[in-house]
# Entry
Amino acid sequence: MLSWVEIDAQRLRNNIDAFRTSIAAGTALMVVVKANAYGHGLETVAPVAAERADWLGVNCIDEALAVTRLGIRKPVVILGHTPLEQLESVVRNSYRQVLYRLDVARALSGAATKLGIAAKVHLKIETGTNRQGIPVGHLASFINELKKFPALEVEGAYTHFANIEDTLDPSFAQSQVRKFKEALGIIEREGVRPSQVHASATAGALLYAEMDFSMVRLGIGTYGIWPSRETQIAARERGRLLSLAPVLTWKTRVAQVKDVNTGDCVGYGLTYRASRPMRLVVLPIGYYDGYDRKLSNSGRALIHGQPASVVGRVAMNMTMLDVTDVGADLDDEVVLVGRQGNAEIRVEELAEKIGTIPYEVVARINPLIPRVVSDNSGRGR
# Structure
């Protein structure tokens, strides 16, 4: 393999267990495996997550079907849009569909009537993020229209916080909770009583136990990554700093070792010029694989447990490292993200260097790169 991702199954279990102990007893736990399990590999992660989760969350019908093909029988919620022509498959497989459009409700009802089973939906309530969702002021009329559609069951109601990760100020999240509770009151007055009510994702579950309702949606925290530095600070202040361990290690191997003379340039654009005789290695990964071009002349990787700097531009399929002081041989293992020996490169480090968030770094690791499970069940954190 040119490059591969190792998934530590026991760390994954431990992370979920840590959240389980931090939420109120009886609160259901949905583990979100959308976007190829946040880049960790849906087919690799979902079976392990399903051991601990009550529900699984995905973005689209294709992801839901992939979960089903794995033989997983936990309820699956589709949190993103499903085209009308694919809604019969949603009903046939008993997936739960997010609902905020009446034409989707009509199509779900038609499919459910045809198949002779209920179509279960989770109403998405708009409380301030202004993405998909039903505005609170339109909710009563929306529900009255839903009552006209047979075989439609409102199993859930939920919302999503807009500013819970990027700040230590909880005021906007609290305003969203007030709107959500108002919406829940409207839903109840209309005679609808969803059994699953959820608002908190990872940061909410960590910081605001009063916002858990009957279920929480665990996303980035599943994978041992904190949503933000602010979340980690706030969790520490509240005495809720869970022990989370990164699940993902991204590796490759040395494809070539070469010597470079003083004054020689490295890579496209001649952006790096050697100031001394150097030894370089070429790695068979680049920005196509998800190793961001902004890591040119700024990233680092681990060889023999030591950091080696990226020199020159990251190319589409190749990256060069300075190993003059480290040493390297052909086919040596290189760690791009994760631990090797006593050294570690965390996703957060890469995110800071390229000016983005950890979510994007892991989600953009090319899905064609193999994901391999390492199950060290006897190893601690």
